[in-house]
Fold:
Amino acid sequence: MPEVIVVGSGLAGMSAATRLIERGFDITLYEQNNFLGGKLGAHRDSGSPDPHEHCYHMYLNWYNNFWQFMREIGAADKFIPSPVIGCRSPGDKQTRPYLTNPGSPATILTNMLNGVASPADQFLSAYSLLDLIGTQWMSGAVLEQTSVSGFFRSRGYSTEGSIAASARTLAEAFASPSYLSSARSYQSLVKYGYRHPTPSLWLLTQNTNDAIFEPWRRHLEARAKALGRRFEIHHRARVESLHLRDGQVRELTLGEMPEEPTTDRNDEPTASKVWKVDVPGDLVLAVPPGPLDRLVSPEVAACAPELERVRLLRSEPMISVDAYFKRRIPGLTGSITLLLGSNYTLSLLDISQVWTDRPAEAGTALNVISSNADLIADYPKDVILDVILKELQRFLDFQLDDVDYTRCHVQTNVGEELFVNQVGSWVNRPKAICKIPNLFLAGDFCQTFVDVVTVEGAVVSGLLAAEALRRRRGIGAPIDIIQPDSYPALLPATLAAALRPAAFAAKAVSMADTMMRTNFSRILPNG
Structure:
């Protein structure tokens, strides 16, 4: 039987394994954690019943291939629509809407009048996105070499207020500053989202392990049994090195990871023992850029020099804090909430209002994300928790005595930082195939038609790797990969051109408003 080793049980690895089993391949999957899912997975520390996510996740309408898998594994009913992204400023008593179904004509006025910025700046922020997806005179290569911030600042209608509003949205979508992010990648995210704007996103009603990856594992095992295929998962097994023979990967060195999940990236886990396994067939590496970098030895680079370029990819740290409280914190909603003006670019989700398997009388449970974590990511976990909680006190009504410290959890991704769609990174992102004929690459950082580092990008990368492998071996039927649709290019370009006079008029209004506010503050500094 044709055999494939898949390394990594995240969305990319699980997607590739599923479709390859269906096409007649036996699969052996190696995962360095003692749970499935990678960065989307959830784990439980020993002695604690609480699941800990890498971070809360947003699932969008245009994730066609992801939703196809969710239907297949019976998890589609675990998601609820969330039309509103909320926000809070320091001292707010209630969470208020920040964006409601962005891209929908029905919510244009709602988003303009939400009070987060002036209506003129809010209009310009929305118009700049329309202008971005309608820009046809700039080639994809030009946009790839242009940052989002650079694109917006090049537009004559932009104001500081509209640029700031766009930067806040980008930080939430990409977890990356606008001056680093590729305008072409952001264009892809916006154009796919605007084609299906309602609802804004979907949220899981359970942790990802229970809702997605355990059902997916059972589905894989059932499919393998029904098709007479072999499917094995080996946990706590990290690939330490690749060994080539005759230009192909023919052996792996594996290392046994510690008993606890390798999620504490402040302490790089080391293998307690190592051993070697043969690679009788093909190998799919569905691992993040950092681990892939470590596997590209001089021997590997000599056969596939393009893989060395993965070292040029930029990644960013993130911090996820599960904050548990002994009582209910007032003023929160069940929507993702941006904390405007927060240090470390904080946002949160009240999972106690979203997860249906929690007791109704339990206290508030928050998943808090720091998307700009460079300043504190290397601190000890207890220091990070203290810093984040004190910053939360600027936005939420609680005392530190209300915190249930025994259940709080801090997770960083130091050592496996989040790849960002950095300006100019496209040429350095690996393709599904390389010059080593039995080695295939998958992961959200790989080149795909999705472009954007998202849940769907990870799934599609796994499918592309599986299809490339299947096609090279000539086994089974082609794998169906659904491309997202968007409006015809001429439509947003025409609409942007028609609204351009209104954009410059809005800029004039914004500038006049800013001048009036500045002069008022100068005359009456105390209000």
Observations:
- The chain has three domains: 3-51+207-312+418-473, 105-196+495-523, 318-412.
- The mean pLDDT is 90.
